[in-house]
Amino acid sequence: MSDDYIYAVSRVRSKEQTLLTGSVMESLLAANDYSECLRLLSDHGWNTDNAKENPGAMLKEERDKTWSFISEVVPDRHAFDVFRIANDYHNLKAAIKNTLAKLNEGIYMDKDMCTIDPALIQKAVSDRNFTELPGEMEKVAEEALNTLLHTGDGQMCDIIIDKAALEGIYKAGKDSGNEILMKYAELTVASADIKTAIRAAKTGKDQGFLLKALAECDSLDAKSLAKAAGSGIDQVYEYLERTDYAGSVEEIRKSPSAFERWCDNTMIESIRPEIHHPFTIGPVAAFIIARENEIKSVRIVLSGKQNKLSTDSLRERVREMYV
Predict the structure, then answer these.
(1) Which residues partner with 217 through β-bridges?
(2) Tell me, what DSSP letter sits at residue 194?
(3) Per residue in 263-306, pLDDT tens?
């Protein structure tokens, strides 16, 4: 491992001490109200000054703090592109819809959270000139825009972009050569495919639609999943029972949010050993995933407190903590 990563891991070890623990999350769940949650978060270093009026700004600030720290300790900003690629394709969707509707709204992800400058994507779509877009996005952008222009099918436009995003994440994970980043990419693609298959089965989409929507990954066979979903929801469950995702079936039967929680907890369980691996870049990747998991759980708790949900109901939604 390079000296740069030795330094990064040592810095991450220090930062891990600031992560919210399971006991802190229990305290948040047990808090009497939203204001008490904010006080607890403030005690753990979160800036809650304006969170009562705008909790989203606080969560964004925490995410920005994570990436500012990562940029500080890892000189190669592309080392963790696997986490940013989805934002590039979000921006492509926004650019296409903004251009066709002649809008100029601030719905783009921040430049620092992307691998491609949002302004470049916006200009390429606006000018109908995609040659300056890197990699596969050139072809995807042209196909998605033309599909929307010629058919008016917004769903198909989204499918083209969403599948390309998953393929990009998967390739970045594989290319990294890092076990944690590969696991992240694998579970990201597989969980997205499962969600698509479930929705398609419930809405009666055919196998042809599914083959266009599902991305390939090692742990699921896209063709088999498409065939199962085209035959109905029970066939999807039957197929998943034969895969690494057999444990997800019970959660899917409960609700979409239960499945999301299962996916996030599975990811946390798979990266937890990185706490004891000092000689790879894995702990840095694990820290990024852990922070995102933490922010997601805080958002769930705060939203629940605002909407007067019971503690038991919230406990069923929050994720396991990394530490």
Answers:
(1) 220
(2) H
(3) 999 999 999 988 877 778 899 999 999 999 999 999 999 999 99
Q: Tell me: the pLDDT tens digits for 67-95?
A: 999 999 998 878 999 999 999 999 999 99
Q: Tell me, what's the pLDDT at 279?
A: 74
Rounded to whole angstroms, how far apart are CA atoms 184 and 151? 35
Residue 40 carries which side chain, given as an amino acid letter? Answer: L
Q: Report residue 264 as tokens.
A: 């996030």
Q: Token pair for residue 44?
A: 């753990």
User: DSSP string of 145-172?
Assistant: HHHHHHH--HHHHHHHHHHHHHHHHHHH
Q: What is the reported pLDDT for 1?
A: 46
- Looking at the predicted structure, is the pLDDT value of residue 2 above 60? no
Element (H, E) at 261: helix 256-271
- For residue range 116-145, list pLDDT tens digits in order: 999 999 999 999 999 999 888 999 999 999
Cα angle for residues 246, 252, 257 (degrees, 5° grid) = 130
Among 194, 265, 264, CA closest to 229: 194
With CA atoms as reference, report the closest residue to 140 among 85, 197, 186. Answer: 85
Angle, to 10 degrees, between the axis of helix 179-203 and the axis of helix 282-306?
40
Nearest to 46 by CA among 274, 299, 237: 299
pLDDT value for 223? 96
CA atoms lying within 13 Å on the CB side of residue 63: 20
**Contact assessment for residue 225 and residue 239, using Cβ atoms and an 8 Å cutoff:** yes
